[in-house]
Write a structure and sequence with these properties.
The protein is of the alpha/beta class. It has 3 domains: 5-77 and 116-193, Rossmann fold, CATH 3.40.50; 81-112; 199-316, no CATH class. It has helices spanning 5-14, 21-33, 47-57, 73-76, 82-93, 100-107, 117-123, 140-152, 183-187, 199-209, 215-230, 239-252, 262-269, 273-280, 284-316, and strands at residues 37-40, 61-66, 78-80, 113-115, 128-133, 154-157, 161-164, 170-175, 190-193. Strand 6 and strand 7 form a beta hairpin.
Length: 317
Amino acid sequence: MFDTPHGTLAALEQAGYLTDLKTATTVYLAGRINKPILLEGPAGAGKTELANSVAKAGHMSFIRLQCYEGITDKNAIGEYNRALQELYVLLKSKSGTPDWLEIQNEIISRAFFASGPLLDAIEADKRCVLLIDEIDKIEHAFEALLLEVLSAWQLSIPGMGTITARSIPFVVMTSNEERRLGDPLRRRSFYLRVEHPTPEREASIVARRTPACSPATHRFIAGLAKALRAYTMEKPPSISEMNDIAQALELLGYSEIRPEDKDIMLPLIAKTDGDRKRLLMKQSFETIIRVARLYASEMAASAAGEASADLAQGVKA
């Protein structure tokens, strides 16, 4: 899959995911030891994107199980196609003297079973990435169903029997920490805490999506992200939302957001009525823009200092 931790880091970067060696090493080891990775952190911090990037970097297919309250084993594993079973029985019953035992065995075979994401993943001929997204939304009882897949890489299906993986999937589970996951699931996984990126890294991420914009605009967007996430917002912006704002600035021909752009940009920034009202309060929007500019200036000064130090080191050498 990946040859080394540094090779993993380079492959993820080439796929568009900027991260650190710690994360890349965990991905490398998980792939070699066949361990799932549990990613926990705030919504919009890049957990799902990491799974997507692993698939791109490893040239693997991508299968997603989206978790939600009330999900069942039928949604995850699949279920028998009852209409197809009934049609088969009807046709066989009209073909001379039917062998009912044979028919009974046939209708509970794999041919009559409509697969879900978990079964698709373990039946894949080549290794795939299986994303179990927002696993914190499921109940503890559903976690138990996953343990068989994550431990033995197999699924037990009533009537059909046990299906063993043709290839072991690379499993990534994400959690926004709506509830604490059970210890059995944690024991079987490598754990990574995923926070929002530093402003410097977010500026680099935004630069990849909007290369036509200036470095100053990229720094402003990163500073704006930091300012908004530090503000008491019901829905802090995700990385992808900041990319959307950067693309909007590019299309509008703006280098940054000004206080007078409040009415234009507010729909891109505030995603709840409560946040909209907070930002419309006197001086709130203006303060955030001022703080964003301050963060951007600090990044520019830091970058200039690093460049000067590199130049001095080069002259000395």
